[in-house]
Amino acid sequence: MKLAGTAAVVTGAASGLGAATARALASEGAKVAIFDMNAEKGEALAAEIGGIFCNVDVTSDDSVDAGFAKARAAHGQERILVNCAGVGSAVKTASRDKATGEIKHYPLGAFEKVIQINLIGTFRCIAKSAAGMLTLEPLEHGERGAIVNTASVAAEDGQIGQAAYSASKGGVVGMTLPIARDLMNEGIRVNTILPGIFNTPLLQAAPDNVKASLAASVPFPKRLGEPEEYAKLAIAMITIGYFNGEDVRLDGGIRMAPR
Questions:
Q1: Most CB contacts within 10 A, which of 1, 52, 141, 195?
Q2: Does the reported pTM lie above 0.90?
Q3: Is 165 a catalytic residue?
């Protein structure tokens, strides 16, 4: 698929992996719509890349519908969707307070929130975008669109406290092939990236010694991943027409330890 002149939507695009992907798409001539809840950063990035910002909460049908309506009114029906919207979580399933002995369990409302954003929010955007892509005329080889999702290496080797996060990202991995199969006769490809430890805003705020320790845990190269590297893989998944139904780790060879 060619990027120049093609409409694209990137969720969670105001910062981190999503922002890098939005910039990469725009640099290749794509018309990019930024879906995010951070209006200040989203508007600034849209102005920078000549795109459009849509204030979208991926847990809300109405919000996602309004976002797609605004993006399509400006750029036309998207052929590209990259899902980067997500949240982290680190709470043990059950634990004992070392000082008081009090026993607590993971608050179920907090668990559900992670699933709603990371898993259901991703599927919500996929389903609504794919339905729109079905209205498009096919390109060469019958292609109508390409979708890239963001999971995590935690989908396969989650750490202590990552039950909700790993479940949500494992769900994204697990639904990739079935969705690709659902859409194969309509010419829509679906792939997922499993990033390792990346230099996103969350980690940029960490102390230098923490970042150095994390970097040292990567087999090679011994550094954090850069968002631009994620964006390059996303672009490859979009532009290489034979890339379909795949879940690809991008992690420097790391396998996460229990903690």
A1: 195
A2: yes
A3: yes
